[in-house]
Each structure stands twice: as C-alpha cells, then as structure tokens.
TrEMBL record:
One of its GO terms (molecular function) is DNA-binding transcription factor activity. Gene3D superfamilies: Winged helix-like DNA-binding domain superfamily/Winged helix DNA-binding domain. Keywords: DNA-binding, Transcription, Transcription regulation. This is MarR family transcriptional regulator. SUPFAM superfamilies: Winged helix' DNA-binding domain (SSF46785). Residues 25-165 form the HTH marR-type domain. InterPro entries: HTH_MarR-typ, MarR/SlyA-like, Tscrpt_reg_MarR-type_CS, WH-like_DNA-bd_sf, WH_DNA-bd_sf. One of its GO terms (biological process) is response to stress. It holds the Pfam family MarR. Transmembrane segments: none annotated.
Length: 181
C-alpha cells in the first residue's frame, strides 16, 4: 500500500482523465485499504510473537467461540463447517487442521452420527494456548479502538456494514460486465 496517499487535488486531476473516478470515494477507499493493511500487520506481528499464524488463530477462535463453561469442552466442528466459517477452501482448512493437530491443539474424531465425516475438537492444550493468547490480543484490540467513543464505534460498525453491502454490489456489477463481454 502507498505510504503517502495521493492528495485530493491529485485525485481531482486524475478524474479529468477517468470520468468514473470519484475523488472523495477514491481517497476514502485508499485510506480504508491502508488502515486494513496496518490492522492486519499489527495482528500478524502479535500472532507471530506467539508463534502462530492468522489462519491457525482463526481455527482456534472458531473452535472456542461457543464459550463453554469452565471445565466443559468446546463443541466440535466439521472441517467443512470450519472452512465455510473462516471463508477459506476446504484444502486450506485441512492444512491448518493438520498443523494444529501436529502441535497438539486439536484432534480429529469420527462423527458419531456420520461415520464418513470427521469432527475437529479443541484439545486441553489448544484451550490453554487460546486462554493464554486472548488477553493480550483483546488488550491490543481495545487499545486500537480506544480513541473512538462507544457511539463512534457503533457508527463505524454501521458504516462498515454499508461498505460491505457496496462490496457485494460491486462484485455483482463486475460479474455482469464480464459476462456481457
């Protein structure tokens, strides 16, 4: 991502050559991309200091997301369900589960209701690692969002949901343009 984002005047000049360029929208878009890159980098650095990856962290979070009571195991999930929830391919999820299993954080067991299927369980070691990792992770997330008042956080969430709807619309427009070519 660009270190120094173009100034509004530069975007205005570009708009003379590209009529579809909205300078305000483009400037906002580039700032959002830069912010997303910085957020991803700080998360990646945190996870790297704890010898894990974003993908592995995601799987551990998905397996512990149900918030079991103390002493209870988190409910298992199928690899396909985990892949769907994480937004990755089944092959990617298989690789993540393989490394987490190798490291003792998860285990696979046959689904008692479907012998053809497997379920992934968080192990005691995986639960302990997650419990150890999360306080620091949540402190960092809280520090990042601290400059925003609660009402601003809620407004930002509402606006980001609108942007996500715009992403879906843009994907449909691109698909329609591609199919008509």
């Amino acid at each position: 991502m660009l270190k120094d984002l173009p100034h509004y005047e530069c975007l205005l000049e570009c708009a003379k050559h590209f009529p579809d360029l909205d300078p305000a929208a483009s400037g906002l878009f580039m700032n959002m991309l830069r912010t997303a890159d910085e957020l991803f980098a700080i998360k990646s650095d945190f996870l790297q200091r704890h010898n894990t990856s974003n993908g592995r962290f995601t799987v551990l979070m998905l397996l512990s997301a149900a918030g079991p009571a103390e002493g209870e195991c988190a409910p298992p999930r199928s690899p396909a369900a985990l892949a769907e929830m994480a937004g990755v391919t089944r092959a990617t999820m298989t690789g993540l589960i393989d490394t987490l299993e190798r490291d003792g954080f998860v285990r696979r067991e046959a689904d008692p209701h479907d012998r053809r299927a497997m379920l992934v369980h968080l192990t005691t070691q995986g639960e302990a690692f997650t419990r150890e990792l999360l306080p620091g992770y949540f402190r960092q997330v809280t520090a990042i969002m601290a400059p925003l008042q609660r009402s601003e956080q809620e407004e930002l969430m509402r606006l980001l949901m609108k942007v996500r709807r715009g992403i879906a619309t843009a994907s449909q427009v691109e698909a329609a343009e591609t199919s008509s070519v």
